[in-house]
Amino acid sequence: DILDLSKIKSGKLDFEHIPFHTKDVIEGVITSLLFKAEEKGLSLTYTILSDVPKTIVGDQVRLSQVLINLVGNAIKFTSKGGVSIDCKLKTIKDNSTEIEFAITDSGIGIPEDKFDKIFESFSQAGAETTRLYGGTGLGLTISRQLVSLQGGTIKVKSKLGEGTTFTATIPYEIYSGVGMEEEQHHTRESGADKIKN
Question: What is the pLDDT along the chain (197 residues), one digit of tens a residue?
């Protein structure tokens, strides 16, 4: 986190511009964090609305990083109920689109007067939060910076004791090429051949 923050502040962070499947990234995030959720008895689910483009062009690693930060936080501050990722299309024009990723939890919530503070480096909602839950207070700072550097926005809605929703809206290009499926399949096959037996 600290290395990423340093790169962001020095302007040394580069973003990839490659095609990827929206669903693959979200499923990867779910797989990474499912054990943490199940350990606390929480559900971890996702929905992708049918109008969201299947393949988009951008930086899947940074999208994954933002979602893991947001979903990881949601699990951390939720003791019952669950966490969901809802992906929907916000705007579309020609081959450009804005996709909205909403992470909703049924956790402790955040006081409205702390909304700005939680995005500051090394800050959390309060000293009690740090004492009870730990953490560096960098996850949300980095998430907002990563979203912002891609031309997007991140917003928060919350009610104390009822839960929180973080919504990250990021612009992407819609993939217009063909043959990505076959190419990925071939790569997986050759990878499997290499480690056979």
Answer: 777 777 777 777 889 999 999 999 999 999 999 999 999 999 999 999 999 999 999 999 999 999 999 999 999 989 999 999 999 999 999 899 999 999 999 998 888 887 777 777 555 555 555 545 455 567 888 899 999 999 999 999 999 889 999 999 999 999 987 655 555 555 555 566 666 66
Q: In 3D, which of 122, 111, 91 has the Cα closest to residue 156?
A: 111
Q: Which residues contact 83 (CB under 8 A, 6 or more apart)?
A: 37, 42, 43, 44, 45, 71, 74, 75, 103, 104, 105, 106
pTM over 0.90: no
Distance CA 129, CA 121 (A): 15
Are 168 and 184 in contact, with CB atoms under 8 Å apart? no
Phi then psi dihedrals of residue 42, to 5 deg: -100, 150
Phi, psi of 164 (to 5 degrees): -140, 150
CA-closest candidate to residue 100, choices 35, 26, 158, 34: 26
- The Cα 129–Cα 85 span in angstroms is 24
Give the up-direction half-sphere exposure of residue 196: CA atoms within 13 A in the CB hemisphere: 7
Single-letter amino acid, residue 27: E
d(CA 130, CA 77): 11
Residue 141 Cα distances to 117, 149, 150, angstroms = 10, 12, 15
